[in-house]
Amino acid sequence: MIGDVSFNVDTSRFNEMARRLEYRLKIGMPNVIRAEAGSVLKACFKRTKFATEADVDRSSHLRNAKGATRSAWGMGKRKGGPDRGQGYVVAGMRDVGKYGNMWLRSPWGNGRNFVLVAVAGNMGNATTGEGPKRIGAATRAKFEAARNRWASNHAPELKAGRGAIGIAKQSWLQIALDLNINLNGVKGGGPISKRDMARATHALSVKGKRYSNGNGTEANDGHRFTITLNNTLPYAVRIGMDRTLQSVLIGRAKLFDQLIKRGLGEDLTAIQKAFPNL
After folding, report:
1. What per-residue confidence (pLDDT) applies to 183?
2. pLDDT in tens, 190-202
3. Taking phi first (over 0 means left), then psi (-120 to 50 degrees means alpha), and beta for anything else, what does residue 189 get?
């Protein structure tokens, strides 16, 4: 009965559970679905983890380094991207210790020589590699521009990255708010800490903007009641939010199956204890 979601998840077992609950409790399908929507969203909110500051900081200084490279060499003709091959940032795939170091291609020789421009481990006071003595004033100016941009943007990029921690959790919260569900008022599953709620509520994108990455709607055509959960976070599937939702839906169905196995499928007291929001 939670019909449409932006992830490819199977809602059949959950829908069957909702029908069986409605049949036993005689409270109407809208009440069952609304109550369960709160339980599902709260569980998804709690299971979706905050990104660690260490991971976010690495992304921030790489973003900063790439921006500095573009700043130094200008924009190329290839779809607005930086001049191909003019600079690169070490991604740490081969040498984790050099993660984030920035190099620019030298203008002499066979074109395979690079000059170290900025060292990730010294972001606040980025260092420049001297390179061969043949380096010209114009090219050195580009290296200096990259170094200066790296150093001056380090703190703002770091702050922006950390300010975005919680965007994934925020998407579940946005869906709940759209459905007038107060996650703190949903029973079961333990409390949501004030810190976690505040961090998710106030998270902004790295560009300092607030986006709507989740919404929910109700529909009732007289024959079928549905609640639609729509999570549009661009990287949701990459971080496993579809699997989180799927496991929560299956978990709710299993909870009712356990009552049946224990012979409590008709026990209203046991059902209401297991599903306290009904």
Report:
1. 96
2. 999 999 999 999 9
3. left
Would you list the DSSP string of 102-128?
EEEE-SSTTS--EEEEE-GGG-TT---
CB of 153 closer than 8 Å to CB of 206: no
H or E, element range at 231: strand 225-231
Report which of 100, 204, 113 is spatially closest to residue 154, judged by C-alpha positions. Answer: 100
pLDDT (0 to 100) of residue 146:
72
The mean of the pLDDT values for the chain is 80
Per-residue pLDDT band for 64 (boundaries 50, 70, 90) equals: confident
For the question of whether the overall pTM of this predicted structure is more than 0.70, the answer is yes
The secondary structure of residue 191, as a DSSP letter, is: P
Determine phi and psi for 55, rounding to 5 degrees: -65, -40
Contacts of 78 (CB under 8 A, 6+ apart): 84
Distances (CA, A) of 156 to 68, 119, 180, 206: 14, 18, 35, 10
Nearest to 114 by CA among 136, 132, 134: 132
How many whole angstroms from its chain centre is CA 210?
13
Q: What's the distance, CA 191 to chain centroid? A: 22
Q: Can you tell me the distance from the alpha carbon of 176 to that of 92, in angstroms, rounded to the nearest whole number?
A: 39
State the virtual CA torsion across 200, 204, 209, 213 in degrees, nearest 10: -40
